[in-house]
Design goal:
Elements: E1 6-11, H1 17-27, E2 35-41, E3 46-52, H2 55-58, H3 61-66, E4 71-77, E5 92-94, E6 101-109, H4 112-121, H5 131-140, H6 147-157, E7 160-167, E8 172-176, E9 185-189, E10 192-196, H7 200-205, E11 208-212, E12 217-222, E13 225-230, H8 240-246, E14 252-253, E15 256-257, H9 258-263
Antiparallel strand pairs: 1-4, 1-10, 2-3, 2-4, 5-6, 6-7, 7-8, 8-12, 9-10, 9-11, 12-13, 14-15
Helix pairs in contact: 4-5, 5-6
Length: 264
Amino acid sequence: MHESCGVFGVYAPDEDVARLTFFALFALQHRGQESAGIATTDAKKIQVYAEMGLVSQVFDEDALSRLTGHIAIGHTRYSTRGSSRKINVQPIVEGRGSNSLALAHNGNIVNAELLHEELSEQGYAFRTSTDTEVIAKLITSAPEKDWVDKIRYAMHRLQGAYSLALMTNNSLFGVRDPLGVRPLCLGAINGGWVLASESCALDHIGAEFVREIGPGEIIRITGNGVDSYREQTDRKAICIFEYIYFARPDSVINGKLLYAARQA
């Protein structure tokens, strides 16, 4: 099953983060035309606006002006697991108060049904039929206190392909599965940082490409900058569909411009 959603994240106190996310999602529209969503936080609460439709149809001035804050994540969806319905649009918000997060996910979790059953037996109620909600509940229900440890706990339980843009009240996280099946890169913009499925989204908003996020890597972005946490991984397995089909020809994956890789 090939899920090709577009995910984006930005931590930039001096920018209109919702608008930046809107333009970045516009550049990632080819990765999913079914629904689009943006979540932002102002360090107190997380707000989300997501609807079925194309990025340009979902957001207007009014919606964007209400999404205030210094951190944002965005998502464009192409559904495989979880039917094409409004209830399944992302980003999804999970948890309460200081234990709340918003999550945008690109990929496919192979053991999602098993984990769904396990969490249901523990008393967790599911609103959607997506594996994204399984990931979000795994993270928020993790016994660890620190967000990085919570994410690492979830990574040890998840099997499959995933790139995540994840946001708490104070931090932005980028996560890539241990094999690096789905792409994710890091960029810099005006004293802040961005995460994106593809580098073409960075070009579109005037951000500078810094590097790709490594397989099995967790990136945490706060007011103090970027921290990286890496699990040791031996093999890599970027999805061949990225090269052939999903990604835009002006994106860079594995250090190579896709247009040239496609020609070859």
